[in-house]
Amino acid sequence: DKGNHRHFMAKEIHEQPEVVGHTLAHYLDMANDRVRLPALPFDIASLKHVAMSACGTAFYAGLIGKYWMERFARVPVEIDIASEFRYREAPLAPGGLAVFVSQSGETADTLASLRYAAQHGQHVLGIVNVPTSTIARESHAIMPTLAGPEIGVASTKAFTCQLGVLACLAVAVGRARGTLSEADEQRLVGALVAAPGLMAEALKLEPKIEVLARTLAKDKDVLYLGRGTSYPLALEGALKLKEISYIHAEGYAAGELKHGPIALIDETMPVIVIAPHDRVFEKTASNMQEVAARGGRIILFTDARGAEEAGVKTEATFVLPDMPATITPFAYAVLVQLLAYHTAVVMGTDVDQPRNLAKSVTVE
Ligand code: F6R
């Protein structure tokens, strides 16, 4: 049932404040600002190494999870696309943690990676949305996302719920390893509790995104840029746009711009910059200035301070409230989803069932 929405994807985008709130509530003790994980059959305090693996959108969630885990818990995290991991025969020291992120829990390459990790003595944790799935069954422990059934082929609410689980896991590991103090934990949990409200703020920008979508629908190529945890979001924004609107899009780490893609910039090229005013904002701002100097059309997703300090003329600027850096991926994800959705609607594509794609990829 789509409710009063035209597509399941729209419904699922709008459900996010609720389902992310629900997922976070499952892993947080909100009364005491603490993380509360289910009992796990391995000791997270003694982890020395984490290997993560997933496909598509779930891989991008994992990439953001890597930034959090390394920052909060100071544990090295390696992340691979599952189709690469399963064949590259990575050496895995026994006793490491291997994390597999999957909405469906049936993705063939992710499952094969899981089996490889289990055979090589890893503790296997599945972050899945379907608790009866094969990946859920074969994992040694699962941390479910509570997104509810996701019908639209393009993943939206499962992605932000995966972020919720990964953030809670990173804080829990940091706390167990002593890299986060109790005060750090309280501050981070306080930030996570605010995420659903900020996603609701992002949804309020929908009318303005709809206007931008009418312009973007005329473009052939779109570049997305981001730095830090906004880099995986740039990848996700580009993936969402190409899969449902069929417009060619690429996501790049902002710092990679001058290593190649800058050659693409001219007056016709839309460049979507995801840049909350965080510790790397100034660096991204200088990349924006490089785009502006070549006449590129900048579409900026930022906050009030970022809008003020960007130092460039933009085609459109979308301003979200200030928020703690840890939760920017939740709110900014909503903007890239809405942009892809409305562009596809303008193009008249089959939004919920894009051509050539399947919801669950059970063959290689
Ligand atoms: C993109 C999308 C795909 C999936 C990928 C993994 O919108 O839906 O990229 O994220 O096929 O699927 P799961 O999460 O089911 O393993």
From TrEMBL:
This is Glutamine--fructose-6-phosphate aminotransferase [isomerizing]. GO terms for biological process: amino sugar biosynthetic process; carbohydrate metabolic process; fructose 6-phosphate metabolic process; protein N-linked glycosylation; UDP-N-acetylglucosamine metabolic process. Keywords: Aminotransferase, Cytoplasm, Glutamine amidotransferase, Repeat, Transferase. The keyword Cytoplasm applies. Its EC number is 2.6.1.16. Catalyzes the first step in hexosamine metabolism, converting fructose-6P into glucosamine-6P using glutamine as a nitrogen source. Homodimer. The gene is glmS_1. Its main location: cytoplasm. It is found in: Cytoplasm. One of its GO terms (cellular component) is cytosol. It comes from the Bacteria. Residues 40-179, 212-354 form the SIS domain. GO terms for molecular function: carbohydrate derivative binding; glutamine-fructose-6-phosphate transaminase (isomerizing) activity. It catalyses: D-fructose 6-phosphate + L-glutamine = D-glucosamine 6-phosphate + L-glutamate. The active site is at residue 359.
